[in-house]
Structures are given as structure tokens and as C-alpha cells.
Fold:
Amino acid sequence: MSLKIEDLFSVKGKVVLVTGGSRGVGEMIARGYVANGARVYVSSRKADVCEAIAAELSREGECFAIPADLSRMGEIERVAAELKSRESKLDVLVNNAGATWGESVDAFSEKGWDRVMDLNVKSLFFLTQKLLPLLEAAASEAHPARVINIGSIDGLQASPTESFSYSASKAAVHQLTKHLARHVSSRHILVNAIAPGFFPSAMTAWLKEYVPAMKKHIPLQRTGGVEDIAGTALYLSSRASGYTTGAIIVVDGGLLAASRDELDGEKLV
Structure:
């Protein structure tokens, strides 16, 4: 079996769905797949934005839009049905669609709780469930299918922000990743999660003024870039990760590894 990098890390010809793929981390991941020869579908709630990014990425390879509001069960079922009508298999599912909400602990609303939990956790599980037949169709012992869930370091630590439902949802994503990995391994489907640190995006735009302070506490002294997150997703989709399942891979520039003394000296937000 070849150990050449072009074989070991190849995703050429794979069929991939990236939810929340029109901006932020999802867009970065989609770009990585398209640049390396995968056939990519991106899904996001805003149809015009979804179509625009698919058209842009199609200049470099194959990328198609399936706009949908994945917080609704009917939309989850529609996406699964549409993908099934276009493809006979699905090699990689990237569950990235997500939302956040910030309110004080005294005023945090049911709306903010349910919106985040429904999209970040419920939709992730049920989209995976609906796409299992397509994932199984792509899967074999030699070439497993992949599910990659996008968690967060906020699911591994107590966040300094008042985003209670977000951190709870990402902790749930990490646990669900391990649980799913255990139960679908016999079907030759690998399930892993990426826990990103700070990556500039529309979701994190409200933290822009705090970025200089954040960088001081990140050991690598910078925020995440497209190569950091796309490279991790490519690894988890290739032969190189064929013996990896149930893992939570942290991509945060070393922030979680920093000591509490270093982090507690200054309030970030």
C-alpha cells in the first residue's frame, strides 16, 4: 500500500457534504476539499450566499449548493433526499452548521437555548441518521466513510463569554461523536470531531475588538487560518486517518494547553 503523500492524504473523487459551508470554518473546509479534487456539496440557510460560494468554488473544481435550514426536521429530510437523488454514495459528511447566542445568566432566554441546541446538536444527529444509507454505500473496510463533527474548545473548557447554550451544545457534540463512533464502526464509518479555537468568521465577528487580547493568550500568537482547519479535515477524510475514530482533535494554537495562571490574569471579554 502506497505511503506517498498524494495517496495517503488524497480525497480526489470523494463525494462530500459540508453543512454551514458558505462561510467561516465550513467555507474553509469546503475550499480544502474542492482544491484537492473532491465533489463537494455545501448547505447553508441563506440560499443566495450558499449559491454564491458554490459558484465561486466551482471555478476551481466541483461544488454544488443545497440551501436548507437544518434546524427543521423537514429540511433535514429534504437535504438527504436531494443528495440521494444526485449521488449513489457519500464519502464524507461534515456537520458544521451551527449557531451561538449570548445573554447574561440571569436573562438567558428559552429561545436562545432552543435555537442553538436544535441546530448544533439535534440537526447533527438526525442529518447523520438520514445519510447513513449513503455513507454505508461508500464504506468498506479498506476505505471507510467519514463523519466529521465540528465542536469547539468551548465544549472542553468554561468559556469566559456568556454563551451558555453554545458551550453546552459543543460538549454534547463531542460526546455524541464518541457515541456514534462506537455504534457505526461495524458499518465501516469513522466518526471524529474537530474542536477549533478562535477562527475569524461571521459568527465570531462580535469578538473582533478582543482579538489582540486573545492573541496574547494563544501560545502560537495568532488566530486560526484556512490551512489549519482544512488540513485537519483532509486528514480525517483520507487513508491517513483510517485507524482514527471517536477522536476529538483540538485545533486552537495551544490555547487549551496554556496554564490557568496565564489565562486568568486578564479578562478577555
In short: The chain has one domain: 5-264. The radius of gyration is 18 Å. The first strand starts at residue 15 and ends at 19. The CA atoms of residues 141 and 188 lie 6 Å apart.
